[in-house]
Amino acid sequence: MKTIFAYDPWRLVENELHREDMRLSESMTSTGNGHMGMRGNFEERYSGDSHRGTYLAGVWFPDKTRVGWWKNGYPQYFGKVINAMNILSLRVRIDREDIDLFKDDVVSFCRVLDMREGVLTREFTIRRERGTVRVVFERFVSIARREILAIRCRVTADYDCKVAFIPAIDADVRNEDANYEETFWLFEGEEEDDDVLSVRVRTKENPFGTPRFAVCGAMAVTPNERPRKIKTDVDEGYVARKYVFDAEAGQTVGCDKFVCVTTSRDHDESLLCADARTGVLAAQAAGYDALRREQARAWARRWEKADVRIDGDVAGQQGIRFNIFQLFSTYYGEDARLNIGPKGFTGEKYGGATYWDTEAYCLPMYTAIAGEEVACNLLRYRYLQLDGAYHNARQQGLPGALYPMVTFTGVECHNEWEITFEEIHRNSAIAYAIYAYTQYTGDRTYLDTCGIDVLLAIARFWAGRVHWSARAQKYMIHGVTGPNEYENNVNNNWYTNRMAAWELSYTAEQLMLVPREKAQTLGVNAEEIRRFREISEKMYLPYDEKLDIFVQHDTYLDKDLKPASSLPEDQRPLNQKWSWDKILRSCFIKQADVLQGLYFLEPLYDKEIIRRNFEFYEPMTVHESSLSPCVHSILAAAIGELDKAQELYRRTARLDLDNINNDTQDGLHITSMAGSWLAIVQGFAGMRTLTGELHFAPQLPSGWDGYAFKIVYRGRLIEVSVSREGTGLRLLSGESLDVVLNGRKITLELSQMARAQEEEEEHV
């Protein structure tokens, strides 16, 4: 575990240059705006180890799967988010020598990510033979103008010198995970004039018929004063403009760089570069300072609803704000064609596509702090990809729809068989999200118009995937991987079977409630609904009477059972120390499995059942999935194990900040970041909505003086604050509402002050 950033409630502050941990720092200081984003790379030249990466939402490539064990039904390609053109580049030369912090004598260094305003700043001083040079970089990707990147650079030397700035766009980039160092881009042209330089590229042809993407990056530069010399450099896939100043000692010189990035996802290809030019000139005309004020106001509006305040724990406070910031930098619901990749814009691992993490972890948070429309777009994403899910099921010779483990289009594009076609439980998480959204919002519109199509398709898959055991007189599901990916190809994984049974029952129930006109279009009849119910009622669910627990799968209790605490520290994490064979034979659990089901279906089980299963399974859980600590934290809080809940909250909140799993250098764990919000709101505050009522049962962890958050709920904005004095609930906007606090029903009314403010806003 390594922490290289100082504790601060609103900022990440790195007070020295960590050359040996540059990739870790780059991951941590990643920024984005939903349209594009990049790692915290240096703008100037850096010759040391670094992972330079800029990524564009929805722009990807189907890289051919390279395996020697091809089987029928195997994905044809591995979908990859691809490293896009380098738009950060801004080299700085002092007396014709590049600044390079890997080689230069660094006197001081500070890098700060301001999460309140979404701005990354870097300030450093280097010593050269004739004196010292102070350099300040500041940049942000605008959430007010989503295609715009703005960079400011200022240089001050304590001696007379020649200073040159070389802002550039460089499209000659590669993915680190590319097979055999291949490239994914073709250069289509460069343009230059006195105002704007631009580069246009297109993804290579591919044999799979997936879309190709065209991208244009346009750059305009404003020097802070008149340079002595300006020179333009244009090469294939590269444009740059050099600004040279004769700077006196103590004089500050610099430039502001603006970039607009347009893609064929959002623009007519014939207008791609013209639109990029228009966008960058508009940004330049507004000026850096005005764009930065726009950025601050836009982030302030997001934080107004989303902020979580923790009193008395700066590390915990920094963790939750960092996680919310990175999630919102990745996705804010503007485009139903997009989703939340597990690495967002911070790296290439996992291909960068969509996992079941969105439905299981992210959707509840977005529903509550970004609003119903944003959450509905996440659900619509799956509805729009239903045809791809049907295709995946057909590939396996099955009816219905199998939602992919990894996708950009709905078609499966993940290349690990034991995950791709055995971890089929993700189907139920997608169905569960429809249920949770409907229960939270009280709005059946999505379910009745789109969601029922998804539910029915998934139910048909389960009805085709089960088999009848004549010996047990039960339906079973063999050959699966449950949420615990440290076991593959098991039979009757409790979570998979239980969630499939729940989904079949829920779908049968909803089919009786949808409008008649919709039901007629679905092609479903009473016999099919009866079969769904029969399978649900007769599903085999492994259970041990002696231990009085649900059994993870048929043979789990035959393993050598021992707690994770028995593992020597030098053997952790297992996935970096042990062979896969040894992991699969062990009892150790990567993440919540049985407990994941108890988390989802908590209203159906009493606390003693949850306690017995928690006390059996959590000690054997190594939490080596980023998705693991939050579920355990929530359940620990529910059964009154507050110290354990706090320990696991800290793990999920600071997973990346402390590099707990020793892999943050590859990119941040974006989707699991929602777990820190869930651990506070569903865990410590005990918020529950699945019964159709809004419940709270707050607890205050030791070491915290209090915490507070807001939620959007059925057209209301509610503030919850918990302290040693008790719990406060305030209705900030919307109609009065009945809620249940610690088992007692109370009515929230607008205060006079809140009502007057609301009426004033409506008038405006």
Describe the fold and architecture:
- With 764 residues, the chain is of the alpha+beta class.
- Helices cover 32% and strands 24% of the residues.
- The strands form 8 sheets. The chain has a 9-stranded antiparallel beta sheet.
- α5 crosses α20 (674-684).
Q: Give the amount of beta strand, in percent.
A: 15-25%
Structural category: alpha+beta
Instruction: Kindly state the percentage of residues in helix.
Output: 25-40%
Radius of gyration based on Cα positions: 27 Å
Give the low-pLDDT segments: none
Number of DSSP strand runs: 30
Oligomeric category:
single chain
Look at the structure and give the mean pLDDT.
Answer: 94
Q: Give the strand order of the largest sheet, numbering strands 1, 2, ... along the chain.
A: 1-9-10-11-12-19-16-15-14
- Name the shape in a single word: globular
Number of helices: 21
- Biggest pleated-sheet summary: 9 strands, antiparallel
Through-space gap between termini:
51 Å
